[in-house]
Write a structure and sequence with these properties.
The N terminus is likely disordered. The chain contains 12 helices and 17 strands. The chain has 3 domains: 116 residues; 127 residues, DNA methylase specificity domains (Adenine-n6-DNA-methyltransferase TaqI, Chain A, domain 2); 155 residues, Adenine-n6-DNA-methyltransferase TaqI, Chain A, domain 2 (Alpha-Beta Complex). A 6-stranded mixed sheet has the order 2-7-5-6-3-4. It has a 4-stranded antiparallel sheet with strand order 10-16-13-14, with helices on one face. α3 runs antiparallel to α6, α6 runs antiparallel to α11 and α6 packs antiparallel against α12. By secondary structure, the chain is of the alpha+beta class. The protein is elongated and about 85 Å long.
């Protein structure tokens, strides 16, 4: 894959225009080498079965976790955010890296398991993180290191199979010391552990490669999005108001309606549900009844092709309406940009409002503290370069392809990452299920 820096060189040297560069370097997510790696991993299962039959045909011993590793929780040190000094060393919490600090308290290879806060996946298994090198760990994550006879990497895979949902207690979810230390671990011979690790690491490497590729693609997407909108020809400079039929907003409860009444079945969309291409209204925490939906729509008048923009709080989250909103509407502070389709392509407007190019243009109009906002009258007056409708359509076609590759959960890289993760979980659970060795009388 060509690097982003190489692509930038080509643009800066005027060898290709922006759109040509995107077309030239677009590649598919499928990589034959990845499938070969999976095939090799599956073939190793035959060798594993032979090892199990040879070394532990009657089952394996199950031990408490504290007998399988060194638990280093008494060495952890929490540091408040205000007291941290920024540096190069990862600062870990319950669910991974929280910050980077100027010092470290551990140096080696470790497993971190969430203790309180974010401690459990949707499947009921622990939040487990692999950490290497010089690190700082706060008191929200258990930390363990390897002992002889039990592979730390084997533990990393095995702990992720344990359902801890019945062990999590308290208003703030917590996997306490006693329950953590007593987690039951199947401990086959080290040769079997190492073979399992070899197989499962093939799958985790694939997921890591795809995740890294997705990160690079998103950076590439952002770079080209900005280049596309940063047009040099200012012959067609317009105001946002010039390309809109209207700019409206939703409605807050106050005296008009109440949230979460007994008959509330409609979704009340806030800034939180914006950001993806389409509105994530099903994730809304609040609901309203039909009377409230009608009242809100008297002001918002939501329609297909409307672009929603968060104008207060977290400014700049953007979505587009592509299906008529039957059972949801928006709060005040979510701005509804109704495009004049004779002047601007609605999807082009969505991408434009997401771009760093546009963010730079409207950032000077942001007011307020601690809650920021951009007044609607000021947003209307923001000037930008408007290409022709044909050029807009061409840009939309290009950015749609990037969006599909980087963000679509049913296609592209996110779908492939999810499929590989499920593949890993299937083989992990299959390979780490052992018959327990019966104790001699």
């Amino acid at each position: 894959m060509k690097t982003i820096s190489k692509q930038k060189e080509l643009i800066e040297d005027n060898e290709l225009d922006e759109i040509s560069v995107i077309r030239k370097f677009r590649i598919t997510a499928t990589d034959v080498k990845k499938d070969i790696k999976v095939i090799k991993a599956v073939k190793k299962i035959n060798k594993l079965e032979e090892l199990i039959e040879k070394l532990c045909p009657d089952g394996v011993e199950y031990k408490e976790l504290e007998r399988c590793c060194n638990i280093l929780d008494n060495m952890r040190k929490p540091v408040t955010k205000s007291a941290r000094q920024t540096g190069e060393y990862p600062y870990y919490g319950a669910n991974g890296i929280q910050d980077y600090v100027s010092n470290y308290i551990f140096d080696g290879t470790y497993i971190l398991v969430g203790e309180d806060g974010s401690v459990m996946t949707s499947n009921g298994t622990p939040i487990v993180t692999w950490a290497e090198g010089k690190i700082w760990v706060n008191n929200h994550a258990h930390i363990i290191e390897e002992i002889e006879g039990v592979s730390l990497r084997y533990l990393y895979h095995f702990i992720q199979t344990i359902n801890v949902s019945t062990l999590i207690h308290g208003n703030i979810p917590k996997l306490n010391q006693g329950d953590f230390r007593n987690l039951k671990i199947a401990v086959p011979p080290i040769e079997v552990q190492n073979e399992i690790v070899r197989i499962l690491d093939n799958f985790t490497e694939l997921t890591a490669e795809l995740t890294a590729e997705l990160t690079a693609r998103k950076q590439q997407d952002e770079y080209y999005r900005d280049k596309i909108f940063d047009l040099k020809n200012d012959a067609n400079k317009v105001k946002i108001s010039d390309v809109l039929i209207s700019l409206k907003t939703g409605l807050n409860p106050r005296k008009f309606f109440s949230l979460n009444t007994d008959n509330a079945e409609g979704y009340y969309v806030t800034v939180r549900e914006l950001g993806n291409r389409n509105v994530d209204y099903l994730n809304s925490k609040d609901k309203v009844n039909q009377i409230a939906l009608n009242r809100i729509n008297e002001r918002s008048n939501l329609e297909i092709n409307d672009v929603l923009f968060s104008g207060t709080g977290t400014i700049g989250r953007v979505s587009i309406i592509e299906e008529y909103p039957i059972n949801w509407n928006v709060k005040e502070g979510v701005y509804i940009l109704k495009p004049d389709i004779n002047k601007i392509n609605p999807v082009f407007l969505m991408y434009l409002m997401k771009s760093n190019y546009m963010k730079k243009l409207y950032s000077n109009y942001i007011v307020g503290s601690p809650v920021s906002s951009i007044p609607m009258k000021d947003l209307k007056n923001v000037e930008f370069i408007l290409p022709s409708l044909d050029k807009q359509e061409e840009i939309v076609s290009i950015l749609d392809k990037f969006d599909k590759l980087c963000n679509n959960i049913s296609e592209g890289l996110p779908a492939e990452i999810e499929a590989r993760q499920k593949q890993y979980e299937y083989y992990r659970d299959k390979l780490l299920t052992f018959k327990e060795l019966k104790k001699a009388n």
